[in-house]
Automatic annotation (TrEMBL):
Gene3D superfamilies documented for this protein: Homeodomain-like, Tetracycline Repressor, domain 2
HTH tetR-type domain location: 5-65
Record-given protein name: TetR family transcriptional regulator
Residue spans binding DNA: 28-47
InterPro entries: Homeodomain-like_sf, HTH_TetR, MT1864/Rv1816-like_C, Tet_transcr_reg_TetR-rel_C_sf
Keywords: DNA-binding, Transcription, Transcription regulation
The organism of origin for this protein: Streptomyces leeuwenhoekii
Amino acid sequence: MPRAGLTADRLVAAAADLADEAGFENVTLSALARRFGVKDASLYAHVRNLQDLRTRLALFAGGELIDRIAAAVAGRAGKEALAAFAGAYREYALTRPGRYAATQIRIDQDLVARSPALHRTAEITYGMLRAYGLAEPDLTDAVRLLRSTFHGYCALEAAGGFGAARDVQASWDKAIDALHITLENWPREEADHDRPA
């Protein structure tokens, strides 16, 4: 019988806090059970296993992240939207490191298809990039460029990997300028029907 007061949502919220405090890799059912003062077995009424918990955490954190990005980009377009998007992404990655790490795990595609948060992420990201006149397959390529740039920069910054005297914020701003120029001058791939036979 489920313990009174314990719910899947409460477990996920506690797991999110634990991830930020101790690292995503240290989110375990045992650690979570200790937080609630219960035995590990009590959690199985709410989550199937550790993978289920971590997947729920990833979806939860992804929802938080896109809410912040959506608020930042609202009413903006072009470079202003790109800078706002990037800034919200970076702020979340640096201030919520465990939750952010959860957003980087691979999630089953069936769950992705059913996740409102992940659909919203795609809508907002692709909407911003369509303002640059991009269409598939260039949209997917541009998303991958942005994600890898933002993630790589944030990972290095969080680890103290930038040792030069140059201000880290100034380099970030320059990277956004460079991404904006790249998106404006994207090497568009011709659609198959536009190619000579």
